[in-house]
Amino acid sequence: MPTPCSRPPSGRVRPWLAPLAAVTAAASLSGCAQTGDPQSAGRTPAASAPARLWQEPSQPPSTSPQTAEPAPDPLPGVPQVPSGDLRHASWINIVKAQAAVGVTMNHALPFDQDTTRRINRCTADRRHDRQCPLRAPQYRDLTGDGKDELIVGIEGPRDVTVWAFKSTGGRVVRILDTFARPLSVEVSGRNVILREPSGSAGYEQRTVYSWDEREQTMGVRSTEYDRLRPTASEAPTPSAPPKAAR
Q1: What is the pTM of this model?
Q2: Which of 108, 114, 149, 171 is the most exposed place for a label (fewest CB within 10 A)?
Q3: Cα 139 to Cα 118, 151, 188, 190, 234, distances in angstroms
Q4: Where are the beta strands (DSSP E) in the chain?
């Protein structure tokens, strides 16, 4: 524990001691502080610039500027939509045309051939077609242009395929192509959210797709893990109210 500063002697000081007393008092005032007063922590080390460990060779400048990816191709075999409102287009024909492109171009579709055949047999009135794997169409503004895009779900043997289409210059373009075993498919604002089981017990994977203006597609914005939300069947049953005492 630091010793308290000694006070300067009181009373008269002999003439030959006056210079020495003055020096002692000055040292006491400069080197000792009262209780609670801030004290110096010493000199602050001077800041230094980063030190380079190795000399790297110079890199040539980029020869070509970065360019945007080409926009998705318009879907062939679908009539144009001059108004840009996909509600005025046949959503089933759009899905059938997209499935046909996958077959013709030998692209790997996320569902099997039997699902493709059942898609081709679908009719507009899904209530009387139990074999149709298409879910009811949904319309949401995913790009922020004030017009609703078309969102469709296709039930395959194991997964659900989610496609989204928009109208660009009257032509129909697919902007989302993904599949999962979803716990739920949601839209929040202009985001499409897929929740599916994760490899960790008690958690679900949440993938968010958002419109990318540069790529002109719905890209993955984030993938996170959340605790599993209870389903309706798992919700606790409310207990009966207590009986009134007689």
Answers
A1: 0.64
A2: 108
A3: 23, 6, 13, 11, 30
A4: 138-140, 149-155, 160-168, 171-180, 184-188, 191-197, 203-212, 217-227
